[in-house]
Design a protein that fits this description.
- Helices cover 68% and strands 5% of the residues.
- The chain is built from five helices and two strands.
- β1 and β2 form a beta hairpin.
- It starts with a helix and ends in a 10-residue tail after the last strand.
- The C terminus is likely disordered.
Length: 149
């Protein structure tokens, strides 16, 4: 499959609702629609590439994953390093441990399971011991509480 700028442009447009959601601007509740569209388009492109390899008799599972790694790992490493540097200046010492666990989970591609289990654990805490910030639950001992008026 030849490179198609139009499809690559659609992927960029699909990312926009996700970015806006994380900035608190969202016309579609949840911000998941952009992720879904991105995955559908990526699946289409990957399937086309696999079919081309199969037609030419050049398909190799090793080369398939090698191409994915060459594309994904540089961005993962860059963003992880940048985030770690920022975390040292932004996070409280009590939050750095939890952050380091999330870095390990992201670096080993287990972040979805890690955050899913964390969400289940935090929801099982008594409501007096947790607070909700933009849909994420955090323990009160790791959140700065402002006085109520």
């Amino acid at each position: 499959m030849k490179y198609r700028r139009d499809i690559d442009g659609l992927r960029a447009v699909a990312v926009l609702p996700v970015v806006l959601f994380h900035f608190g601007i969202s016309a579609i509740p949840g911000g998941f629609t952009g992720v879904d569209i991105f995955f559908v388009i990526s699946g289409y492109l990957i399937t086309g590439s696999l079919l081309d390899d199969l037609e030419r008799g050049q398909f190799s599972i090793v080369s398939f994953y090698w191409r994915r790694a060459r594309r994904i790992l540089p961005a993962l490493i860059f963003v992880t390093l940048l985030t770690c540097i920022a975390a040292l200046f932004i996070l409280l010492p009590s939050d750095l441990h939890e952050f380091s666990l999330s870095v390990i989970a992201a670096s080993t591609f287990w972040s979805n399971i890690y955050f899913w289990k964390r969400q289940i654990t935090s929801r099982s805490m008594p409501s007096s011991d947790r607070c909700c910030t933009r849909g994420r639950f955090r323990s009160r001992n790791s959140t700065i509480s402002l006085p109520r008026s």
